[in-house]
Design brief:
Layout lengths: L19 E9 L2 E8 L5 E5 L55 H28 L20 E5 L5 E2 L3 E11 L1 E2 L10 E2 L4 E12 L5 E3 L5 E3 L5 E2 L13 E3 L5 E12 L6 E6 L5 E6 L2
Parallel strand pairs: 4-16
Antiparallel strand pairs: 1-2, 2-3, 5-6, 6-9, 7-8, 9-14, 10-13, 11-12, 11-15, 15-16
Length: 289
């Protein structure tokens, strides 16, 4: 707009020494203008025409020889819509110096790890040394073996004695019946075997010969048949049953009596066995048939 004379400004009153003058009452075609004019040439340099404002903003021109200051518009970060993925920041993070060395927890873990490794190595050395011990002659050590005594199986005829270092036993006799008289004598009814069953009555004797004591009972003697069936004793309800007792060291002590078994009729291969304890245990077997 250089060269236009602001002749319509009614209040053109520049002050002495001023290069510019703001004219706010200029009118043109019924429209009020705000402008800035030079006091020497009365040329219009810039003006602002607000549509309805009574006090328009005026933009001053730069003085000769001075560079205009350009203000940059502020950067507006667009707000992300809900559900949209967040974009990574274009500005790289500032590199900060990282701490050197180990923290307290790191030092603790390191010390514990070293202790565990040393313990494992020591245990391995000890185990190897123990397993590779030498004996005279350079051979491997001989392991200690615990030997468990075993019994010897021996067969006897009725009336023969089986003997060990502390006792002697024998099956003296046997009887197979379908009934027997009780201890109350002939005036009491006899005990009858069930159908298909017979009574096997054996008489056994035990002699104690040494040691502190010996406990014996009818259960020491077991009846078996040819098929390997085992028969447990029953209570003999008559005179002279085999007792359950302990034999002491007061001289040589002897006990004996009858033992009753119930067996199916026609059973064959009957035999009585008894395990005799001693320095050399003996499993004695007496054949009844």
């Amino acid at each position: 707009m250089a060269g236009n004379i602001c002749g319509n400004c009614a209040n053109f009153k520049p002050k002495a020494g001023e290069k510019f003058f703001n004219c706010t009452d200029a009118k043109q075609g019924g429209i009020k203008y705000g402008m800035q004019v030079r006091s020497d040439t009365r040329a219009c340099e810039a003006f602002t025409v607000p549509a309805k404002s009574t006090t328009p903003k005026l933009t001053p021109t730069a003085e000769p020889g001075r560079k205009p200051v350009v203000k940059s518009a502020p950067q507006v970060t667009p707000r992300a819509e809900p559900g949209a993925a967040r974009q990574p920041s274009a500005t790289p993070p500032e590199d900060k110096p990282r701490p050197t060395g180990l923290c307290a927890w790191g030092k603790t873990v390191l010390i514990v790890s070293v202790v565990i490794v040393v313990a494992l190595v020591s245990w391995g050395v000890y185990a190897c040394g123990s397993s590779s011990g030498s004996t005279p002659g350079g051979g491997k050590p001989t392991p200690t073996v615990t030997i468990t005594p075993t019994h010897t199986l021996q067969y006897f005829s009725m009336g023969q004695w089986a003997e060990t270092s502390i006792q002697r036993r024998a099956v003296v006799s046997k009887t197979i019946v379908s009934s027997y008289q009780t201890e109350f004598g002939p005036y009491a009814p006899p005990i009858q075997a069930p159908p298909g069953i017979v009574f096997v009555i054996v008489e056994a004797s035990t002699i104690y010969t040494g040691g502190s004591s010996l406990t014996t009972a009818p259960g020491d003697f077991v009846l078996t048949d040819a098929e390997g069936h085992r028969y447990r004793y029953n209570v003999y309800q008559s005179n002279g049953p085999y007792p359950s007792t302990t034999l002491s060291v007061a001289g040589i002590t002897t006990t004996g009596g009858k033992i009753l078994y119930t067996v199916p009729s026609g059973t064959s291969g009957l035999e009585v066995s008894c395990l005799l304890q001693g320095d050399q245990p003996v499993l004695a077997v007496w054949k009844l048939q």
